[in-house]
């Protein structure tokens, strides 16, 4: 204990520096881990607070769908509460959904909406509305703006309605992917519903809160189907949609956990090297202490106690830093869903982080402390170069290069520091490959199953076939095909969304093959990679397919796998199925009218940007004008799947992580170079005495730096391989086409930058070594 007090008095600055380094590492890891926890908890927390309905049931969908009485639905035994809603047909923008509560129960009593800015609309004002955050982003709306919607009037003509936006909000049902209710929502008021009754084409809905929650939705659907005379039910259960959102946000949390793990690993390597150097410095007095009767065990205990003090101080600093930066997390959609203040203290994560910081510091110091206590070696021992290293150095003709290489390859060079620098360069290289591959994916819609530019949908009761002639006559349309999108079927009892296209002026546009081939007959089926794995099937297997509640299962042969776009609750990346049109229609019961295709997929002439980048905007506007002359039809641009939307919000995180790892690698190389020059000051002074000029000493130190950097560059090929493996694993999890991009120019620039920065950093210690007073150094040694 006395030795620890003496060391603290003598070297408190070094101890404080190490405590700050430990705090920085522990704080970063704790902050990222706490951010991962908050990311995972954000959307479920919003859902619990919002109390959204379990099901939305259309009362008068019409056509092939059932019409039911609201009072009969409310009398069902599973219904605990209900609220009326009215949906209006928006012609422009077609993707907008206009909803108006029938009374003040929504959002006052249930289905609360989190306000991001502004306020909720006054229920008595027909001209006020709030908008979902997704619509606010796409239309650049904020409180105080006005928004114009072109709605379908009962006369069949468009009616323009203006709303004053009083708030931007976020409800659980408005987070992508939400295909039943839509995510671009304008929430009007009960006053608007009363004012426009009988003037606009609308659809009455009822929101249901059920005893037993989402588990009883299938039973309620069957009962409502019977109330509608056996016709198909038009309803939107919110639980499957919420599960899609939770899954996509969970991927953000997984990314943050991986980042925390990488930071912890590299941080331990750096901390191990720094503590080893401190132990060597402290061991200068060990020979004297051993002569005074202090045992090796006592010296080891002192070293561990010293590390515990440093770790404790670092844990306190790291906890304060983690709390200070907690407002950065969560990010992306989870940040929108977050309830409560931005800066918060996640005590379970903070407590675990403090314990891990202290334990990690002590663990890193354990081996150096024991080794120093037992060996009691002199700090002035001259490192001996191995025969193999000597031969390598001898092969180099330039004397300064050979000398610098000898000093860099000395056995006492910090191996943990070299490992840390290699790992840092590895992480940066892997991040460059991963980021380049992700950018290529987001810029290439076909890789995630989108083979069209827009979907033409019917907004009324008119059949989709009535607009096909107008689409075919448009010169900007390269190909088109009517399609059934997101039809729910059961494959071996598992609910799956089906996509199929037929006819039109183009081949099937729905699914991008991964393995096998597309279906060619009614008895064949193609599945998503994740769906195939979940069923335990393989190409060539026979599966049983049926539309729920219609007839007996029919055998289908799996002939391939494909990437399916996100166009329904059950057709997500890696999941889904593709049938021929005849194969789908044969699943419909004979007494049930066959519904028309969901829409027409349209591909424009030429190449357009990826969805979300305003690609094809003029073509979509022109096509909208054409199809609306044929009736109430809308044109919806192709969308990026929510899994990739969320990943796109984190797209720069791998690169930022890699840059952080690369920065730590450079700091490690810098520290290694500074300490190596200090350790070899005797050898450098001897060289000066033998005739080395100051310029040659500086060159020798520069070659030492270049040697360290060259060893660190071993992480580049390992990083490329790691980046490829990580990308293949990521795309495999999503079930999409794995295309890896290795940017050779960036990799070469990375290698050159590491060497150049290392040599530049060497300028300071090289200048110090060249100016050292020979007599003072040699006398001290």
UniProtKB/TrEMBL annotation:
Keywords: Cell membrane, Membrane, Transmembrane, Transmembrane helix
GO biological process: lipoprotein localization to outer membrane
TM annotation in the entry: 12-34, 254-271, 308-337, 349-370, 416-436, 655-677, 697-721, 741-764
Location in or out of the cell: Cell membrane
Domain ABC3 transporter permease C-terminal: 664-768
The keyword Cell division is assigned to this record: no
Annotated Pfam families: FtsX
Taxonomy, superkingdom: Bacteria
Bilayer disposition of the protein: Multi-pass membrane protein
A GO CC annotation given for this chain: plasma membrane protein complex
Family: Belongs to the ABC-4 integral membrane protein family. LolC/E subfamily.
Protein name: ABC transporter permease
Organism of provenance: Trebonia kvetii
